[in-house]
Amino acid sequence: MSTVSRFIVDTLVAQGISRVFCVPGESYLGLLDALHGRSDIDTVVCRHEAGAGFMALADARLTGRPGVTLVSRGPGATNAAIAVHTAQQDGVPFVLIVGQVPASHVRRDAFQEIDYRGMFGGIAKWVAEVTSPDRIAETLLRAIRTATTGLPGPVVIAVPEDVLTAAFDGVPGPRHAPVRAAPRREDVDTFQRWLAAAEGPLVIAGSGFESEGGRDALREFAERWSLPVLVSFRRQDLFPNAHPLYAGDLGLSNPARQMAVLHDADLLVVLGARLSDINTQGYTFPGDLRPGMKVVHVHADAASIGTTFDADLAVACDPTAFLAEVRSPDGATPPHREAWLERLREERRRIAEVRSFDVDDGIPFEEVVALLGRCMAPDAILTVDAGNFGAPVYRVIPFAPPQRLLAPIAGAMGFGVPAAVAAALRHPGRQVICLVGDGGFLMTGNELAVALERQLPLKVVVSENGIYGSIRIHQEREYPGRVSGTSFANPDLVAIGAAFGFRATRLRTPAELDALPALLASPGPEFVVVDTSIAAVLPRR
Length: 541
Ligand SMILES: Cc1ncc(C[n+]2csc(CCOP(=O)(O)OP(=O)(O)O)c2C)c(N)n1
Known about the structure:
Layout lengths: L3 H11 L4 E4 L6 H7 L6 E4 L3 H15 L3 E5 L2 H6 L1 H10 L3 E7 L15 H5 L5 E4 L6 H13 L5 E7 H4 L20 H13 L3 E5 L8 H12 L3 E3 L14 E4 L6 H7 L4 E5 L22 E6 L13 E4 L2 H6 L12 H16 L12 H11 L5 E4 L8 H4 L7 E3 L9 H11 L5 E6 H4 L6 H7 L4 E6 L4 H10 L14 H7 L3 E5 L8 H6 L4 E6 L10
Parallel strand pairs: 1-2, 1-3, 3-4, 4-6, 5-6, 7-8, 7-10, 8-9, 10-11, 11-12, 13-14, 13-15, 15-16, 16-18, 17-18
Helix pairs in contact: 1-2, 3-5, 3-16, 11-13, 16-18
Bound molecules: thiamine diphosphate.
């Protein structure tokens, strides 16, 4: 007899989902049973729902298909909430399936019951509760469509345990054809005219180019028209960073002198990015009044355009599809364009400079990052947790596709290790490196048990400084000398790495850093603990 659970699994497979991440619960035993013995879908058993959620998000970014996490009701769903929020802020397609209390107990405050609409309503794109078996096909269709269409994001589906085990004979349909919207010819013509006339054009490229062929389309377009490209927050892997047209990124705080140059652009072309808090530097760029600047905004989601600053030309369309309609320029690049490009390059050069440090309390982590940038494999996948140790990653590593950077736009700590485990599962042949602080490592980190189980040759680099460094820096700036709530004691991190089956090494001084390239190139799992200098990053008094 076929069941709702069987139909769910068959539908996920039909939609190109080949892996799910779970922490089991008695509320969805039927769904776990439907996964039993399946060779077409891999069930990854995790130790915490936050990690299971982050793994699904990383997998989604690598496959372009929705990440799927299965969790138990109440406690399981609350543990997974950080992944729902991260999926929303990062624009990642994510389906969280929750085993709910039996249908006859719903809305009675039953054991571990939660009203998921109330709980996730503000952060998920859609929340559904399946109250009868005959609604499951429609619910899955809408869930996957919603998660993947426009601005991708999270959906939550709660299914009562007795609905999961109910008889159901449906046959899953074929994989959904993507929803496509095309630009109007007049808008493309206008865009081309503006491009040809612009003296100081500037492209901001965002996650809309993460799809198949997107990076090539972006680079070809920029090269044909000689356009400088800035990438949106933490999307360095969209464009070769050593390319003469790379103008850098929009980060947590771009230097004022670079922003002054960006404000001089006369045509700002925002492609597949949102004009969000960070991309706009706290809602200050490009600004409301910009007499000398036109703004073109192309995004697959119409609702992502005009959220704070309006566009002079607004097109709701996938940016790769939009660029396919744009012709090559008729003539050579305007002569004054080179001076504009050089101004942007000069700012980029200043930002990418590796600083030198005169400290004696450990290794300045910027030196680790700079070395990593020189020795990473050409197709490496780098995952980066939240924390101060990661700040140089976005400045000094010259990412080049197909290298990938997976770092949470939402700034959630605890993402780095689970994302790396998911990446190593998805791409067993590629070098996968995780950078994580000692704070973030102990926030999740238990996913290394999956790396042990699956024999993944992960490279984990932990920056150990005994503090929540990122917050300490803010604290020292605002409350000098008044340390409060930002220090902690660490267990023996090297022993932890070894306990998870890694070869574990501690690097204590800048001279010992020479060992890092060989450790990263080794065929087995490597766990490297770096004694990180605090003096190198604290504000000077
Ligand atoms: C889940 C979560 N909790 C808290 C924060 C706030 N926060 C941002 S960075 C940071 C400190 C990170 O410390 P660590 O991992 O040791 O790296 P470091 O900054 O010392 O390099 C904290 C607490 C956050 N971003 N995410």
